[in-house]
User: Fold Large ribosomal subunit protein bL35 from Methylacidiphilum caldifontis.
Amino acid sequence: MPKPIARRKTKKAAAKRFKVSAKGKVLYFGSGRRHLASSKNRKRMRRIGSPKVVDNSDRKRIVESLPFS
Assistant:
């Protein structure tokens, strides 16, 4: 029998937190929206909820954790 090809598994923690766009940008959503929202103003809550692009210094590690995206 031939030996199976080794494949990398997706890191599920990274898959839940990051998304790779069609052009290859890595996006994430800000933290801090789940609770204690009444003390945060509406502008801050909108900013937290919008997607942001991951910095290039972290991008390589995240893409390695998401081999099928």
Observations:
- Strands lie at 18-20, 26-29, 51-53.
- The chain has a mean pLDDT of 92.
